[in-house]
Design a protein that fits this description.
The structure is a single chain. The chain is mainly α. The protein has a single domain, classed as Winged helix-like DNA-binding domain superfamily/Winged helix DNA-binding domain (Arc Repressor Mutant, subunit A). The mean pLDDT is 91. A hairpin with a 7-residue loop joins β1 and β2.
């Protein structure tokens, strides 16, 4: 699970469509669909619910599992960045 996967989910949440979410991440629609399928297979849970177009425009929404995944990832990423900054500062201090 990397940052592009999370940005894809966040883009879908923000725009309401997979296509626009893909555009925001700079990935093709096919690549995005494959990544969504891969994430769902690994997690064993649907992440994106879609309603097909027609007279009314189709749309996509994230499931609660997808929203939880984003929260967990963002929390973990913040922890990693804090630890990394501290370790770097400590290394710089030791180098003086």
């Amino acid at each position: 699970m990397g940052p592009r996967y999370i940005r894809l989910l966040e883009g879908i949440e923000r725009t309401g469509t997979i296509q626009e979410g893909c555009r925001e991440t700079g990935m093709s629609y096919r690549t995005c669909r494959n990544r969504i399928k891969r994430m769902e297979a690994v997690l064993g849970s649907p992440l994106v619910l879609t309603v097909r177009g027609g007279e009314i425009r189709g749309h996509a929404t994230l499931t609660p599992a997808a929203r939880q995944l984003i929260r967990i990832y963002r929390r973990w990423r913040g922890d990693v960045e804090r630890v990394s900054r501290r370790a770097f500062a400590k290394a710089m201090e030791a180098a003086r």
